[in-house]
Amino acid sequence: MSEIFIGIDLGGTNIKIGCFDSDIKLISKTSVPTRADMGPEVAVDKMAETVEKLLADADLSLNDVTAAGIGTPGPAKYSEGIIIRSTNMPEFKNVPIRQMLSNKLGKPVVFDNDANVACWGEYAVGAGKGVDNMVFFTLGTGIGGGIINDGKLLHGCGDNAAELGHIIIHPSGRKCNCGQRGCVEAYASANSTAKRASEAVKAGAKSSLKKVLEEYGQITSKDVYEHLKAGDKLAKKITDETAEALAVLCINVLHTTEPKRIVFAGGMIAAGDVLLNRIKHYFNEHIWTLKKETVEICFATLGEDAGIIGAAALAAKRRSRA
Amino acid sequence: MSEIFIGIDLGGTNIKIGCFDSDIKLISKTSVPTRADMGPEVAVDKMAETVEKLLADADLSLNDVTAAGIGTPGPAKYSEGIIIRSTNMPEFKNVPIRQMLSNKLGKPVVFDNDANVACWGEYAVGAGKGVDNMVFFTLGTGIGGGIINDGKLLHGCGDNAAELGHIIIHPSGRKCNCGQRGCVEAYASANSTAKRASEAVKAGAKSSLKKVLEEYGQITSKDVYEHLKAGDKLAKKITDETAEALAVLCINVLHTTEPKRIVFAGGMIAAGDVLLNRIKHYFNEHIWTLKKETVEICFATLGEDAGIIGAAALAAKRRSRA
Asked: Which of A32, A74, A286, B215 is the least crowded, having the fewest Cβ atoms under 10 Å away?
């Protein structure tokens, strides 16, 4: 009998599902629309149907499955398996998602924050493999985080640890969506990077990005990096500010949990070495001289599959502990 | 036969030693000059002699001792039991202090950073008792830190986690002794608080502290709080800046390891409620509105004995694990 693990990444738009062997090698995967408006029961039914279909396509069945893992955005009571509410899934209120899915599949289910799950994926089989102390950041709409300490996810007293995008680096600085001022997220997420570029163009900065704004009504972080590569000075300034904020973030987590490796993920790492090298540059500029730091800063390797990989790997890990 | 634990706090000036029962209740304590200039062997001999004398005075002997703990300032390889070097004890270079003391006493010895040890003391029997997720700050010459995560001290990949005074809150701000700019230590340690007050007076700020500077050539943080209580406006401004920096520090550690309680210790907490209430005020002003935070911010209760208490408690803890 095989030992198969299921990984599920529940987002507001799509549910991604993967089927993995015991080495967390992908056997098959798929994605279905969440249809969050139809509520959690419909979504859980759809997950179970999709899992069965995915297994059947690989000549497997639920009998082969050992456990499943699922990741969702917060806020949630992860230790109790409950989604409290969700910005992108308003019908999901106080949903005991872990128990619902476990009942439907007849298998143990583990449940965690989407950033923690992706962090675990990178730790298990990606850019953090074998590094028992690591910190993980996702650079997307916001900045999510995950912390591995001595080979375990750090959860905190209420399952809300590693909200690393909301570390304050400019107490009188830019307003963040969370209500704080000067969060690193207000400077260095993909959205904030794009927003700072738009603001600068609107304020009259000379830039090739002006045409983008005129033509499309907005600038994306992708535009910023493309124009940077083409030599635009404003794009370079914006990227430098993003990289500097991320470097200070790296220093702050280094002085807190002392990771051996810091892994950046999310859409914005598509910018490539131009971003990574600037982060390293500012890290070296801001870090203390008291002692030499050897932390490695790198990009994630699992791409968009990190969520399903991490969920399956977490299911396998919990299983091995039991 | 009793189960006795020894706690040692090795500082540049004095060695404090305490003798504790298995509930970490103090039986007796003493303090002897370190005489760091005479080197580590003399210091270890003195520790052992003092321990024996302390035990004899309480009608006990080394036979009653289960284990000892010792705390020192860094940098050190705590897991290997070695002091790498010490600012206040220049003769102490690559000293295998744990093994040396263990050989001399014939007992197992645990060794950790002085801030970690004090943190563990507050967790074991002080202001953090029973709170398995807590963060601890000492406000002295610098700002030291300790983190308890799920009932364990968080050490990081190289025993240098919880260097919390060097979290950067103003990347272009004041220069810190560590070489970074804008560390919270450069604003809110006892020394930095005093220094900011002196700078302001020298720059012409109107304040009753001016007389202190003229008379004694310097202002201490104690002066600042005394003049604050007497109604001095500059002292209030300086205290507000200290409290605001500490509040931002609280928020940053909250978003990283999510403690249930944050405990401040060190000489500066003698300022009392006037400081604690301002920290809480700024915490509420800066914290996000995304969700209500219930972290408790309070002052330590063990005072200057935290080091010997924590060292003994750590020895007892390691013993119970073995």
From this structure: B215
C-alpha closest to that of A144 among A158, A130, A129, A163? A163
Query: What sign for the dihedral angle of Cα B310, B315, B316, B322?
Result: positive
State the ipTM, two decimals. 0.95
* Contact of A3 with A66, CB cutoff 8 Å: yes
User: Which chain A residue has its CA at the smallest distance from B149's CA?
Assistant: A156
- Give just the sign of the alpha carbon dihedral A165, A169, A171, A174: negative
Shortest Cα–Cα distance, B62 to chain A (Å): 35
Q: Which helix (H) or strand (E) holds A299?
A: strand A296-299
Q: What digits encode the pLDDT tens for the residues A228-285?
A: 999 999 999 999 999 999 999 999 999 999 999 999 999 999 999 999 999 999 999 9
- What would the pLDDT profile of B237-292 be if each residue is shown by its tens digit? 999 999 999 999 999 999 999 999 999 999 999 999 999 999 999 999 999 998 88
Q: Which two tokens stand for residue B245?
A: 């920096």
Tell me the two tokens of residue B96.
Answer: 């295998």
What residues in A contact B178, CB-CB < 8 Å? 288-290
Is beta strand A14-20 parallel, antiparallel or unpaired with respect to A26-33?
Answer: antiparallel
Closest to B183 measured CA to CA, from B235, B137, B129, B135: B137
- Chain A: nearest CA to B200, how far in angstroms? 21
User: What is the rounded distance in angstroms from the CA atom of residue A103 to the CA atom of residue A107?
Assistant: 7
- Hey, what amino acid is at A22? S
B81–chain A nearest CA distance, Å: 19
Q: How many residues does chain B have?
A: 322
- Give the closest of A169, A170, A171 to B244, CB-based: A171
In what helix (H) or strand (E) does residue A277 lie, and over which residues does it extend? helix A273-286
Both tokens of residue B273? Answer: 């409620």
Residue B285: how many other CB atoms lie within 10 Å: 12
Identify which of B164, B180, B287 has the shortest CB distance to residue A180.
B287
> Which residues in chain A have Cβ-Cβ distances shorter than 8 Å to B256?
147, 161-164, 167, 252-253, 256-257
Q: Tell me if B154 and A149 make a contact (CB, 8 A cut-off).
A: yes
- Strands B65-72 and B109-113, by their bridges, are parallel
Are B262 and B296 within 8 A, CB to CB? yes
Distance, first Cα to last Cα, chain A: 19
The model carries a pTM of 0.96
Strand order in the sheet with B134-139: B152-153, B143-149, B134-139, B261-265, B296-299
Measure in Å the smallest separation between the Cα of A317 and chain B Cα atoms. 19
CB A81 within 8 A of CB A96: yes
Q: What is the average per-residue pLDDT within A309-317?
A: 97
Q: Are A183 and A156 in contact (CB under 8 A)?
A: no
Tokens at A138, concatenated: 């996702």
CB contacts of B160 in chain A (<8 Å) are: 258, 291
From the list A168, A252, A291, which residue is nearest B75 (CB)?
A291
